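My current task is to audit a protein record that another person submitted. Thanks in advance; the entry in question is below:
***
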Amino acid sequence: MREYETTFIVQPEISDEGSQSILTKLDGILEAGGADRLMCEDHGKRKLAYEIRKFHKGHYYTLQFLNDGKVVPDLERTLRLEESVLRFLTILADEDVADVDARKAVAAEAEVEQTKRAEERAQREAEEATARREQEEAERQAAAAAAAAAETEAAAAATEAADEAAAGDAEAAPETPAAPAATEAADEETKS
């Protein structure tokens, strides 16, 4: 028995359900061809080295399986016809797997470890998203508080300016009656 690895890149905007349907289709082909699926590793979304069909990112998967090689053309045909698959490559990882059961056990352990890492990554991403939301909310509240403080300060400055203007009017008002009195005094001097 030979061990093969098929790595393929799926469009980044394809949903998880779309990716799962592709994986289910590939698993069905492997099962129909008599292949033993070892594991499917999800590498996540990554930046592509160059643009493929106007995409700069892609979702990477690696499918490992045991077979005599007869299922490979069917698998590649399906990947070629799938519109959401950007690229794929199948390589012969091991020419002769002597102990198939031992290889399956190693693959099962690796898949359990991969699942554990995926759960940890999902938990970490959820915590980061929560922290980002809390930080954005705190920034919004700080901006709102700063705007309210600026508004209060502007209102206080306007009130202070109004008070100063009123005080200036009060000082100017006594001078106005004094001016006619001074004029009267000047008139009396001219008469005398």
